[in-house]
Specification:
heterodimer, A: 219 residues, alpha+beta, 4-stranded mixed beta sheet, globular, B: 221 residues, 57% helix
Chain lengths: 219, 221
């Protein structure tokens, strides 16, 4: 029985990118469906009636929502290929902790950087850089957050790189000069096909953010 | 060997997140040492074990810390997997359980906090959001005795601690959860029949008194 896998997504979403990377890592064939977030499809509304958000993974007709939950689901079902989470409970808990940290910090602070101005923006930039430095510390001398192998935390975090040009331009700062180790890690990840084929061009994301800013009325 | 290693839980009396960890440990029959944290004067141990967020609960197993309540519950479930599993073994149902536990964190918690902290229009919006989130959980519960199905499980653990805060929300917000979500109250009473729950949840009146006190001290009107 062939598996039917569908991904409801929106191309600049870092959350969607997480699932794209995971499916690629596991070598899973799937149908990608681009959603227009201003005109959500009946399939999306039916598959995620609670949050009405992308990404949604649909496996043999059954929807799984929330990106990190979907990544763990894929890991559970396709457990024999390329494990992404440590098998040891303690290290697994640590991986979950850091992925949760990415959710709590990177997305919200990044968003504040391109939507705010003045003091609020300065505070967001400072906190954002601190968060990346903390992640750098956590990475240490490892090749990936997962150690020798690309894993769960790498997947949770690397998609945000595509938004860095937007953050840097609107925030007027340079992430590489603040966090060189972080950028070195990103470059290592980009050498993996599962990553490079799943991430959009940061220039395109930047242009998208320019459009959004116009639309929501930020100068 | 694992079962003999020391287990220590740093928590705080009225924290629903700490209660999740306590219920999970009790369900599994794990002996542990409990340390009450004064959140206005955090212990060096807490700051060392959770340097990132400096929050409770923190589970310290054999000297190693695990932070974030749902991560702690999953860790407990994985390490002591043979006693009373909390997460379903089926991948899809496991994902559903994680989804709804995350829903409690994303929706129920934040709305509930606004109910007792805010006033006027803001409070009305918070009440509406809070009750809406409970109704959505009721919908997911359906006719099952527990969110875990026939047995008490992960989502039940995630949600039941909020029950001892209902009196606080209802008093500040001037509403009754039972009038809007009777099935959920039936579910809560069913959970309270379990020793792991009844021995863990704080008394609703004590929670209320503590919140009144907290508001007087830290939140200016």
């Amino acid at each position: 029985m062939a598996d039917e896998v569908v991904l409801l997504d929106f191309w600049p979403s870092p959350f969607g990118m997480r699932i794209r990377i995971t499916l690629a890592e596991k070598g899973i064939k799937y149908e990608y469906k681009e959603e227009d977030l201003r005109n959500k499809s009946p399939l999306l509304l039916q598959s995620n009636p609670v949050h009405k958000k992308i990404p949604v993974l649909i496996h043999n007709g059954k929807p799984i929502c929330e990106s990190l939950i979907a990544v763990q689901y894929i890991e559970d079902v396709w457990s024999n290929r390329n494990p992404l989470l440590p098998s040891d409970p303690y290290h697994r808990a640590q991986a979950r902790f850091w992925a949760d940290y990415v959710d709590k910090k990177v997305y919200d602070l990044g968003r504040k950087i391109w939507t705010s101005k003045g003091e609020e923006q300065e505070a967001a930039k400072k906190e954002f850089v601190e968060a990346l430095k903390l992640l750098e510390e956590q990475l240490g001398d490892k090749t990936y957050f997962g150690g020798d192998n690309f894993g769960f935390v790498d997947i949770a975090l690397v998609p945000f790189y595509t938004w860095f040009k937007a953050y840097e331009t609107f925030g007027n700062f340079n992430i590489e000069s603040e966090c060189p180790k972080f950028i070195a890690w990103v470059k290592r990840c980009l050498q993996k096909e599962s990553v490079s084929k799943s991430l959009p061009d940061p220039h395109k994301v930047y242009e998208f953010v320019v459009e959004i800013r116009k639309r929501i009325g930020i100068e | 060997m694992v079962e003999e290693a020391k287990v220590l839980l740093l928590g705080s009396r009225f924290s629903m997140f700490g209660m999740r960890a306590k219920i999970a440990l009790a369900e599994k029959g794990i002996k542990y040492e409990y340390m009450e944290e004064d959140l206005t004067n955090k212990s060096p141990l807490l700051q060392e074990m959770n340097p990132i967020h400096k929050k409770i609960p923190v589970l310290i197993h054999d000297g190693r810390p695990i932070c974030e309540s749902l991560i702690i519950v999953e860790y407990i479930d994985m390490v002591w997997h043979s006693n009373y599993p909390l997460l379903p073994s089926d991948s899809y149902h496991k994902a559903q359980a994680r989804f709804w536990a995350d829903f409690v964190d994303q929706k129920v918690y934040h709305a509930s906090k606004r109910v007792w902290i805010s006033e006027g229009d803001e409070q009305e919006v918070a009440k509406k959001d809070f009750l809406q989130s409970l109704k959505q959980l009721e919908w997911f519960l359906g006719d099952k005795p527990y969110f875990g199905g026939d047995t008490f499980g992960f989502v039940d653990v995630a949600l039941i601690p909020f029950y001892c805060w209902f009196y606080t929300y209802e008093t500040f917000g001037n509403f009754k959860v039972e009038e809007v979500c009777p099935k959920l109250i039936s579910w809560a009473k069913r959970c309270m029949q379990k020793e792991s729950v009844s021995e863990t949840l704080a008394d609703g009146n004590d929670v209320y008194e503590a919140v009144v006190d907290y508001k007087k001290k830290f939140i200016s009107n």
